């Protein structure tokens, strides 16, 4: 891939911040602190947008900010040379690496998206059927957490795809975040009874088709490193790995929703 986005992981960090916006944020120098009542790691983590001249002081300020919100201090760190110094600091402070995630991307010219799935429903807001299926797969918590998740989902202009089975039962969903002229694939989920039946592929094709008709030139997505089945699906759809990130938390607590 020869696009600017493929060469600069920092561009993806900015896109991810737009596509999955935390409702509460602050800054400590070049670090962006994000909080969303503990719903998802990304929306409750530090994005080290740039190098902190005094990292230990920034670390203390960040820890207090999250402590005031009764949240753990978590960093989302892209695996780049620019973050080597921060990783050294976090290693010394006892922040283990966890939740490794692969960032994959493709240009619209990588291949035709394929025809839109005949039963794919595309909306610009998540309806109850979409939310119910996604939350049943990725959600953790009750109605308050679901309400916060919906705030995050709708914080960026997006398209929401839902594919039903032959009986009209929701089988798979996905979201395409429209971030700075690109399409970020999020929230890919198939119900337990519909897995391994090509519904994930149908949802992905529906999202790519919808994005292509809107003249998007780049698509990208995030997938946990150990989800080999999903990574294979994305490779077959023309996506390629461009970089990785992981989370660093000093005292891991309960798992948060999402990747």
Summarize the SSE layout with pairings.
Blueprint lengths: L3 H4 L1 H11 L4 E5 L2 E5 L10 E3 L6 H14 L5 E5 L5 H9 L4 E11 L12 E4 L4 H11 L4 H11 L4 E7 L5 E10 L2 E9 L8 H15 L4 E7 L3 H9 L3 E10 L10
Parallel strand pairs: 9-10
Antiparallel strand pairs: 1-2, 2-3, 4-11, 5-10, 5-11, 6-7, 7-8, 8-9
What would your notes on this structure say?
Strands 4-11-5-10-9-8-7-6 form an eight-stranded mixed sheet. A three-stranded antiparallel sheet has the order 1-2-3, covered by helices on one side. The protein has eight helices and eleven strands. A hairpin with a 2-residue loop joins strand 8 and strand 9. It has two domains: 4-101 and 245-249, no CATH class; 106-243, Aminopeptidase. It is of the alpha+beta class and 259 residues long. The relative contact order is 0.21.
CATH class of the largest domain: Alpha Beta
Strand order of the largest sheet: 4-11-5-10-9-8-7-6
What is the end-to-end distance?
Answer: 24 Å
Number of strands: 11
Structural class: alpha+beta
Q: Give the oligomer, counting copies of the same chain as homo and different chains as hetero.
A: single chain
Largest sheet: 8 strands, mixed
- CATH fold title of the largest domain: Aminopeptidase
Mean pLDDT, as a whole number?
Answer: 91
| Relevant CATH superfamily of the largest domain | Gcn5-related N-acetyltransferase (GNAT)
Amount of beta strand: 25-35%
The CATH architecture of the largest domain: 3-Layer(aba) Sandwich
Low-pLDDT residue intervals, each spanning 5 or more residues: none
- Overall form: globular
Q: Gyration radius, to the nearest Å?
A: 18 Å
């Amino acid at each position: 891939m020869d696009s600017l986005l493929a060469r600069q992981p920092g561009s993806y960090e900015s896109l991810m911040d737009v596509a999955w916006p935390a409702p509460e944020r602050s800054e400590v120098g070049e670090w962006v602190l994000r909080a969303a009542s503990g719903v998802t790691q990304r929306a409750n983590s530090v994005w080290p947008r740039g190098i902190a001249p005094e990292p230990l002081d920034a670390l203390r300020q960040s820890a207090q900010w999250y402590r005031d919100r009764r949240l753990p201090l978590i960093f989302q760190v892209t695996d780049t040379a620019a973050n080597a110094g921060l990783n050294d600091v976090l290693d010394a402070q006892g922040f283990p690496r966890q939740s490794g995630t692969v960032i994959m991307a493709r240009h619209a010219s990588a291949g035709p998206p394929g025809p839109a799935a005949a039963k794919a429903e595309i909306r610009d807001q998540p309806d109850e059927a979409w939310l119910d299926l996604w939350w049943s797969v990725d959600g953790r918590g009750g109605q308050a957490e679901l309400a916060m998740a919906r705030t995050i989902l709708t914080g960026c202009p997006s398209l929401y795809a839902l594919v039903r089975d032959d009986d009209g039962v929701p089988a798979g969903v996905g979201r395409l975040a429209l971030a700075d002229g690109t399409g970020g694939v999020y929230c890919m989920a198939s119900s337990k009874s519909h897995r391994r039946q090509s519904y994930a592929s149908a949802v992905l094709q529906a999202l790519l088709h919808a994005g292509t008709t809107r003249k998007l030139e780049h698509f990208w997505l995030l997938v946990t490193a150990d989800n080999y089945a999903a990574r294979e699906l994305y490779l077959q759809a023309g996506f390629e790995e461009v970089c990785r990130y992981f989370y660093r938390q000093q005292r891991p607590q309960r798992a948060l929703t999402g990747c």
